[in-house]
Design brief:
Elements: H1 2-18, H2 21-40, H3 44-66, H4 73-87
Length: about 90
């Protein structure tokens, strides 16, 4: 769990400094794939789960990109963190 929290901190800080949603989602997907392979071994479920995690992360970061100019950025940011925790 500590590795997942560190991963979320790293991905969110990467996104806030670069504002590149696709790169942050790839970073998230590859990191969840590596963590899953490390702790669960290789299976088709691990690959599919990491792919789904990538797609959800891409949606979260695109939502943050959309909400950046409005007053809903910080609620979307916090909600995005909760979604990424639930996905991981």
């Amino acid at each position: 769990m500590i590795l997942k929290i560190l991963l979320i901190m790293a991905v969110m800080s990467y996104y806030t400094t670069t504002s590149k949603a696709f790169n942050a989602a790839i970073f998230w997907g590859v990191a969840t794939l590596l963590l899953s392979l490390m702790f669960h071994g290789f299976s088709i479920g691990v690959v599919l789960g990491s792919g789904l995690s990538f797609l959800i992360a891409l949606g979260v970061f695109k939502l943050l990109e959309y909400a950046e100019g409005s007053g809903y950025y910080w609620p979307a940011y916090i909600g995005g963190i909760f979604v990424l925790v639930a996905v991981s």
